[in-house]
Design goal:
This protein is mostly helical and 148 residues long. The chain contains 7 helices and no strands.
């Protein structure tokens, strides 16, 4: 059996667009692994072996949105999780780590998507982190009771 190097192998054939559910599931897995990359959207269809039209059709049929909207939603959810887990990290740093663009553009999208203003969200996350830290330091039940 002779092995052909990858760069000499025949190009991958395109998958049929007969299973939009599977294509969307594969695309969402691809987003999960590549959301930080600026070219994640443009490389998705090629990586899945489908046409751009097939990817667009599949997302429209299954999720009622475009692949770009789905990737943006994934990135915003990653930002939400990142800020919840580490609320004292820099906002710009967190936004860039999630593959999103400029802070000025992302904050209104975040607020519209999650229905909370960014300053209030960060304050709430920081207070929750402080409460968790206090609870770890004071596990006894009476530490939870406020004294008059």
């Amino acid at each position: 059996m002779r092995l052909v190097p990858d760069d000499l192998a025949a190009p991958r054939t395109m998958r049929e667009c007969s299973d939009p559910v599977l294509i969307v599931a594969d695309a969402l897995r691809y987003f999960a692994g590549h959301f930080r990359e600026p070219e994640a959207l443009s490389s998705t269809a090629r990586s899945l072996g489908v046409s751009d039209d097939c990817l667009d059709f599949s997302f429209d049929q299954i999720r009622g949105m475009t692949p770009a909207e789905a990737l943006q939603e994934h990135r915003l959810n990653k930002l939400f999780t990142s800020l919840t887990d580490q609320p004292r990290q820099g906002l710009s740093q967190a936004i860039q780590a999630c593959g999103l663009a400029r802070t000025a553009d992302v904050v209104p999208l975040f607020e519209q998507t999650f229905g909370i203003e960014m300053p209030l969200f960060l304050l709430t996350c920081r207070r929750a982190a402080d409460d968790r830290q206090f609870r770890r330091a004071h596990p006894e039940p009476q530490a939870l009771v406020l004294q008059p």
